[in-house]
Amino acid sequence: MNHPSQPLPIAMKRSIPFFAVHLAALAGVFLVPFSWSMLALCAGLYYLRMFGITAGYHRYFSHRAYKTHRVFQFVIAWIGTMSVQKGVLWWAANHRHHHKFSDQPNDIHSPIQSGFWWSHVGWILNEKNDPVRWDQIPDLAKFPELIWLNNHFLIPPVLLAATLFAVGGWSAFIWGFCVSTVALWHGTFTINSLSHVFGSRRYQTTDTSRNNFWLALITLGEGWHNNHHTYMSSANQGFFWWEVDGSFYLLKTLSWIGVTHDLRKPPLKLLESKRIQPSRFARRSLLKMEKLVKSAS
Ligand SMILES: [Zn+2]
Ligand SMILES: [Zn+2]
What we know:
Blueprint: H1 16-31, H2 36-62, E1 67-68, H3 70-81, H4 88-101, H5 111-114, H6 116-122, H7 144-151, H8 155-189, H9 213-218, H10 225-230, H11 246-256, E2 260-261, H12 268-274, H13 280-296
Antiparallel strand pairs: 1-2
Helix pairs in contact: 1-8, 2-3, 2-4, 2-8, 3-7
The structure holds zinc ion (2 copies).
């Protein structure tokens, strides 16, 4: 029997569309004329769908980091599904599994256990990881509309691609769908690969997760991955004001108009207890305390 963490060959036939979109993006930028408006369309659809993945697939469906009503729950699932990263239930179940076994032999996408490329993309293209891990998501499986969307995960991206082509022709299809989707795939995948390899570690966790400013920029805040593995059910992954977290800013804004609520925050006490090195603030307080004890004795 194959061990879950051992790299297996990817399902080549079924991966053809994945490679075809890469090829179309690569060739397309030379074939269609460049314009700034097309680049803006590409970036806009990148960040809109990244928000669907980070605030929806990840923080809401995988971690229940905030609450919302059923309509927005479906809307954010739809936006995430437009990213062509399979169904929302499939994604959330695999992700919960990742947190349970991070960088252990059972982790399905650990760069430490199975190599960089496997953690980046190989595990997605492998048939073995196709089934939905229903045992991980009993709370989500009770929504029939989510099950429907999960089973028909190609409808949102195909509709998006067709609309772009109908409205803006080949240019909009290439820039708005192909280039944007390829960037979005690899932007998202860096969190499974690069975020467990490059960056700093502030907190002691049982995995190799790291904090990385650049990855946080391209992933709307997911680059604070060591923070995230320290307290995964937090709605904000940037724990300090200088840790940019675009998804959280948007979720916070949505809470002001009543779309989201109960955004969870990490308990500061727990964070301090897991620090690899005490913070400058904690060090200063300790020094002050020591001085006080000395002067009292
Ligand atoms: Zn991770
Ligand atoms: Zn997570």
